[in-house]
Amino acid sequence: MRPTLLSLEEAAQQAGVAASTLARWTTKGVRGARLPVAWQQGRMLFEPTDVAAFVARRQQAICGPPNGPGADAQDAAEADAAAQELAAIQPTLETPAPGRVEAPSPPAPAASPAGPQVEVCQVTPALAQAWLAAPRRLPLVSPRLVEQYARDMAAGRWVFNGDAIRLSVSGALLDGQHRLLAVVKSGVTIPALLVRDLPDAVVHTIDTGRPRRLSDVLRLQGCQSTVILGAALGFLQRLLPGTDDIRLEGGPKWSRDEALALLAQHPGLPASVRGVLQTVCPSPALLAALHYLFSQRDPAAADTFLAALRTGEGLVEGDPRLLLRDRFLTYDLPPRRTRTFVAAITIKAWNAWRQGGSLQVLRWGGERQRERFPPIRG
After folding, report:
1. pTM score, whole prediction
2. Whole domain around residue 23: which residue ranges?
3. 340 and 225 part of one domain
């Protein structure tokens, strides 16, 4: 009876090494020889006898005979013979033994006669680590993008869209490092298209197109004013918690799936975007997000507040809306005005107007004066 084939993790445990090291033995090898491997549905599988033989021969070839560095000529000859024996297992990679699960082993550092190989596989965290251990011909890693992908994977929002993990004929990772790092970070297994045996020279042709922005995705969903709507979604996402330490600058990168999910939860936001288009203000997207939040308290009052900012009709001295409108029209804002500051004074004007009060000065001290971000009232 044939022994049961080992997964990457099981084979690594048998060999007493990390999974990434075992995977490197299949691609880079040791002293010219590589560990035989079979592929089944994107999984790396190993014969237990192959693993045991490779480990034993590797020890002989690398460490030499038991007498160590001071061995005599006969011992040295035996070490040379062991190294030759290790190299002799190389041909088994080119011609798999009968009964192997699938196609032959990983690509050699030469062009594959059959050309690139394509399949759909399940990328586990262990398999992702193994591919990441291979040489990479890729740009620097963006931690924010990895975090964004990992959140989508952990939340079940990640979908299979045909984007490929690309490996070259020499075993180098050409594309997919952020997805693989996110798989490791999230601990989630995802389906992916795997393309192997690509020429190394194609690396400069990957990711050269214009990336699809959130505004493009929203336009495909049939939305209007998508640039403003996309930015408004970002502001809404940060304003929703209603805490007193809100900051609208910087912060973690969020995904298009997160944005679409937020839009599905708040379908009234596009109407707020349409309402602010004719209003002069430092940030129409921020004003749209605030108008939407105001409308959750009182839709009619939110529309009245916005109309006053747009036209100025009926506003008298002391009206908080007049103060806010004047600051918007004259851009009477701090030299380093921030979105957080604009949001704070807008909320303060709304709160004062809803409470029926008047204001002579509209300001927000922020962190310098230890003034917390104002909550929305009324």
Report:
1. 0.55
2. 1-104
3. yes
